[in-house]
Amino acid sequence: MKGEQHISSLVVLHRPDSASIVRGFTTTHESLQIAAERDCRCVLLCETDNQRAIVDHIDALSLLPGVINVSLVYHHVESADELDQPAMTMALHQETDA
């Protein structure tokens, strides 16, 4: 078994002048990606292979200058083996229901 894949989203509330700091942090961390961004907040997509890495990202983000709060708003764990399986299409799903 390859392990687990953790998919989560984080909301980062920050000062308007700190947006570039948050952007810079995400570009240096491969497991983070900006999904949405506004003046004083952004939503980050976080994909890691363990739960501890999520907590480490939250801790590091909260220590950035101008960051007011970091909230975990979604967390899903999936077996890496399961993610390697082909997805069921809607047509196939309807055939199995018939």
Give a topology summary.
Elements: E1 4-14, H1 19-27, E2 32-37, E3 41-48, H2 51-62, E4 67-79, H3 80-83, H4 90-97
Antiparallel strand pairs: 1-3, 1-4, 2-3
Number of domains: 1
Q: Spatial order of the strands in the main sheet?
A: 2-3-1-4
List segments where confidence is low: pLDDT < 50 over at least 5 consecutive residues. Answer: none
Helical stretch tally: 4
Helix content: 25-40%
Report the order of strands and helices.
Answer: EHEEHEHH
- CATH top level is Alpha Beta
Task: Give the overall average pLDDT.
Answer: 89
Strand coverage percent = 35-45%
Instruction: Provide the CATH topology.
Output: Alpha-Beta Plaits
Q: Tell me what the CATH architecture is.
A: 2-Layer Sandwich
Which short descriptors sum up this protein?
alpha+beta, 4 helices, Alpha-Beta Plaits, 98 residues, 34% helix, four-stranded antiparallel sheet
Q: Overview of this structure, please?
A:
This protein is of the alpha+beta class and 98 residues long. It has one domain: Lrp/AsnC effector binding domain/regulation of amino acid metabolism (RAM) domain (Alpha-Beta Plaits, 2-Layer Sandwich). Helix content is 34%, strand content 39%. The protein has helices at residues 19-27, 51-62, 80-83, 90-97; strands spanning 4-14, 32-37, 41-48, 67-79. It has a four-stranded antiparallel β-sheet with strand order 2-3-1-4. Strand 2 (32-37) and strand 3 form a beta hairpin.
